[in-house]
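Dear Dr. L.,

I hope this message finds you well. Following up on our conversation about the binding site, I have prepared a predicted three-dimensional model of the protein together with manganese (II) ion. For your records, I am including the exact sequence and ligand specification that went into the calculation, followed by the structure tokens. Please feel free to forward this to your student if that is useful.
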Amino acid sequence: MKIHIVQGNIVESDADTIVVNLFEGATETGGATAAVDQALNGMVQELISGGDFRGRLGEVGVIYPRGAIAARRVLVTGLGKVEDFNLEAVRCASSSALKKARELGAKKVASLVHGAGVGSLDVTDAAQATGEGAMLGLYKSPKKYPEPWDTIETLDLFELEAQKLPAVEQGARLAQANSQAVYLVRDLVSLGPNIITPTYLADKAREIGSKFGMKVTVGDRAWAAERNMGAFLAVAKGAEEPPAFIVMEYNPGRPELDTLVLVGKGITFDTGGISLKPAEKMENMKDDMAGAAAVLGAMQAAGELELPLHLVAILPCTENMPDGRSYRPADILTASNGKTIEVISTDAEGRLVLADALVYAEQFKPKAVVDLATLTGACVIALGNWVAAGIFCNDPALQEKLVESGQRTHERLWPMPLWDDYRPKIKSLVADMANSGGRFGGVGTSAIFLKEFTDYPWAHLDIAGMVHLEQAQEVSYTPSGATGFGVRLLVDFLRRWR
Ligand code: BES
Ligand code: MN
Ligand code: ZN
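The resulting structure of the complex is given below.
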């Protein structure tokens, strides 16, 4: 589906389906919806007055104009209560309408920019949310014989006032770049680990890189060995599948731009290694590269949007497998900064690959480093599934920016303590630190471990609970399965940097 901007009255649209909106409990239509109602001789009003439609979020009323206007059908999407109205409501309302339109066989849809008129939201934000809700809700995960799901060809966003058009245009541009990137991430996380190997991710990085003039380096075992990446290499030891330490650089060699580094955990399958995981639900560990996928998606969107930043992505990618060559509990590793690590559990592999990635980030002299990782089950225990990712941060201003972007995008972050109290719990008799601090405070000890490898403003996002959704919520734009979490958060953060 392509999004277009149209200046004019939506009543005059040549689309087969028109989407207007209504707040919950409204007794009269307003704004552009009122104009449509008028053209329909009060059919929208009748829908409300009769109590057939109440404007609840997710509710979609269908009207057949029977020639009163050109469109075959008019969908009235509920915006929910005025007092609860925000960008998230816009996304949900837009998503509900477009899913209904597809169900009814629509090919061309015209929609109001929800919230830009009566809702008094920022116009760019409202257009972005309308577009994202529409595109993201329609997604279906790749199947072996994919049924076509992208059957709506165009979405026309209508705006009457000329002075608002550039803002709508900008919102639509953001929506398309973000949604395409989220589609990519959902595909990458959905597809099996035999397909989405480190090599596959490296090829994808090269593909994105060549499209946007990024410099892409893919380090193999020998490359990593030359750089003394003992922690990353240890995790890769048991894997037959070649590991890939992927580095992408957007706008390299432009000292006038701020440098930001994004790091993503890229374990393409996490069996736990010699500390083998139980068989039950192990298939979910294909998600363990969702951090790397989100960063890849953010890089694609950044390229598409031509963000004025020197952006670096670092993606340490490997499987974590049990094998005769695997690393073992009790092994003592030396990371690329010379620090030694006693392995307690080979299942605490994420922090090991991140350790070398975080050290590698330092050479870019970054203004900030943000890592995304499906790091701990403990974070899911603490914050729940599909509620919030944990954020650990050593810089209050950076944390505030990220938390705010989380609110705006509804990819929410909740602050967790990066306190030295966790440090004694990963003490080792034989190395600088252990890679696990046991069950209690498992999310805190993972973060304090990572801190040993950072030397710049840094935020660690534990996204373990956010990358997969067993059962989609009734009103939402995130279908069951891979969520694509992180792209919209990162793009909002990058776009609003400074
Ligand atoms: N990839 C897992 C974390 C995970 C768990 C992600 C559940 C998504 C859902 C990670 O590598 C892991 O195994 N962590 C261990 C750490 C422990 C051994 C210290 C965990 O959380 O149990
Ligand atoms: Mn693990
Ligand atoms: Zn893992």
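In brief: Residues 98 and 134 are 6 Å apart (CA to CA).

With kind regards,
A. P.
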